[in-house]
Amino acid sequence: MVESRDVTRRLLFDVTGLLHWYAFFPNPSGIQRVTEKLLSSTAVQRNERVEFVTRSLGGDELYRVDGGTLRDLQDPLRRRAATARLRALFTTTMRHARRGGPTSDMAIVHVPYFLLGRARLAPLVEAWFGRRLPTALPPLEVVQDPGSQDTFFNPGDLWWQKHYAPFVLGLKARTGVKIVQMIHDLFFIERPDWASPTFVRTFTSTFGGAAPGVDRWLTNSIFVKEQLGVYLESHSLPSRPVEVLPMGWDSFAVSKGENRSSTVGQPFILFVGTVEPRKNLAMLLDVMEDLRRDLGERVPELVVVGGYGWNSKGLAARLWRIPRTRWLTRVRDADLSALYRTALFTVSPSHSEGWGLPVQESIAHGVPCIASTGGALRESGRGLAVHFDPSDPASLKSAMAHWITDGAALQRERARIAEALASEHFPTWNDAGQVLLKQAGLDGNGRDP
C-alpha cells in the first residue's frame, strides 16, 4: 500500500455521476439536486482541501473538475454554459479511458460521446449545447493519488457505474484512502419490480461489490439508515458507521418578505416526481377522476412535473388524454419554485421514498402537502404534511376533498406551516456540508480539527 508523504487531508468529491447525468439530461432529478446543493454549500466551497474529481468510463484515473463550473449549475444565467462545459468534459474523458475500459461501463447511449471523444471534438460539443462558437478546452488535469489520510466521497449515483466497485476497491487497496459512500434509497430490496431489471442487477452488483471497501456510510434519512443496516447484516457485509446527512431546507431562494398567503386559491394541484410506477401516480389520477365526478368544476387542474421514468408508457398515455391535467417534462428550478408557490396544495402519493424532496420543498415554500406514509416521507414532512396510507385511495380522496371544499381549513394549514418556518430551526445545505467535512476529518475552514 502506498501512502502519500503529504499529511494534509483532502476530500475527493466524486462528480462522475453528475457529468454522466448532464451528458443526457438538462435538468436535475432528486439525487442530482442533492449533489449540487451539497457541493455548492458554503462549507464545502470555502474548504481548500475539497477537490472535485471524475473518472472516465471504465477507467481508474481521476481528473479534476472545476468547482466554479459546478457552482454555475445553481445560477440560472450560467447554467446552460456550465452544462455545456460538463458535456464537453464528459466527451474528453472518453478518449482517456484505458484500452477496452469503456466497455465495462459503456452502454449503447454512450457511443456518440465515445466517438466524439476519440475524434477530439469536445469543443464542438460545448459549442453546440452552449449555443456559441467553439473554443479550445483546457487539457484534463490528473489528480494526485490520495493517501490514507484522504477521503473519497461518492454522493450516491451508483446505478449506472458497472465499473465503480472494482475501481473503488482498487483505489483503496492501492492508496489506503478512506471511502465515504452516500445511499439515497434501497427500494430495490423490497420491490425490484419498481425498477428495470438492468437497474436492479447493476445497482445490486455495484452496491454489494463496493460495500466491503466503505469506511463510513451517509444516508439521507433514518429510514434508509435502518434499511442499510438490515441489508448489510442480512448479506454478511461489513458493518460500518452510518451518519444521516441532513437535507437542506434552503434548496430554493424564497424572499423573507414574500407574501405566502397570496398563493391561496390558485387553481391547480401539484405533483412533482418522475412518472413511474413507484411514485403511485396512477392512484392519484384515479382519485382525481373520482373527485371530478363528485365535485365537478370545483376540482382544480392537476399539474404533473417530472420526466419519463421506467415502465411509464401506460401512465404517459393516460396523462396526455386526461382533461384538465398538464404534464411538464422539463422544468427549470426557477420555474419549479414558482409552481410550488402558486399551487393550491401538493400531493406526493409515492409507495416509498428514501427521503421525499417534493414534500420538503412544498413545505419550505409554505405550501400544504398531502403525502403518503411510504418510506421516509413522514421524516421529510417534519409533522407539517398530512399523511395517508399509499394503498388506501379513499384516505387520499378524503384529504384532497377536504382542502378543495374548505378554503378556511387550507388557510389554517398554511398558517401552521408559516408559523413553524418562522419559529423552528430547519437544517440548511451548509449544515449538510459540515457533516460531510466531518466525515473526512475536516472542519468548515479547511483545517484538520
Q: Please, could you describe this protein's structure?
A:
The structure is a single chain. The protein is an alpha/beta fold and 449 residues long. It has helices at residues 16-22, 30-39, 42-45, 67-71, 79-93, 111-118, 122-130, 164-175, 187-190, 197-210, 222-234, 281-295, 313-321, 333-342, 357-364, 377-381, 393-405, 407-423, 429-439; strands at 11-14, 50-55, 62-64, 151-154, 178-183, 216-219, 242-244, 268-272, 301-305, 325-328, 345-348, 369-372, 386-388. A 7-stranded mixed β-sheet has the order 3-2-1-4-5-6-7, sandwiched between helices. Strands 10-9-8-11-12-13 form a 6-stranded parallel β-sheet, with helices on both faces. α5 packs antiparallel against α7, α12 packs across α17 (393-405) and α17 (393-405) packs across α18. The longest helix has 17 residues, at 407-423.
